[in-house]
Design a protein that fits this description.
Length: 146
Amino acid sequence: MDFQQLTRPAPTSTPRTLARIALGAALAGAGITHLTVAREEFQAQVPAWFPVDEDVTVLASGAAEIALGGALVVLPRWKVAAGLLVAAFFVVIFPGNVAQWLEGKDGFGLDTDGKRLGRLFFQPVLVAWALWSSGAWPALRRAVRG
């Protein structure tokens, strides 16, 4: 695997650039709400089995979202690496979404099992969005080919 492919600027287009900036802005915005007005709502997504205090988890994930979102927006040369990190972040937090569904915790208007289950299907969309908009998907293919 040629890891240098993952740090080289990837070709882009206006739709990809706009999608990357929109995702970055949305992540940064969500991160800010983690730290301010929606801390309790985000605590509903922390699984009961997770060994770290709910508030600490929410604050840490909020800081991560601000950093990742900012990287997508202001570090275009590193957009592939940022896109990979954002996609990985969405995978890592997915168990919290599953736990919210399984534990029946309300948050963000997700007040029924059906709504909480439906939300789970949006997570792969976020992963794909991060990989596509950052150019990480083609960069990964090039890296694997060597």
